[in-house]
């Protein structure tokens, strides 16, 4: 499967980046994939 944008890492930074790209390019229908090898997420509050 091909995607226009691939983000490696589904942690806080990866998800925030994907959301920001989608928000700023609302007129363009972006095809974003997030690759995260881990099935667990550890919340690291700022």
Please describe what this structure looks like.
This protein has 46 residues and is of the alpha+beta class. 28% of the residues lie in helices and 17% in strands. It is built from one helix and two strands, in the order βαβ. α1 links the parallel β1 (5-8) and β2.
In which range does the helix fraction lie? 25-40%
How many beta strands in the DSSP annotation? 2
Radius of gyration, taken over Cα atoms and rounded to an integer in Å: 12 Å
User: Which residue ranges are poorly predicted, with pLDDT under 50 across at least 5 consecutive positions?
Assistant: none
Largest β sheet strand count, sense and barrel closure? 2 strands, parallel
Broad shape: flat
Distance, first to last CA = 35 Å
Question: What topology does this entry show?
Answer:
Elements: E1 5-8, H1 12-24, E2 32-35
Parallel strand pairs: 1-2
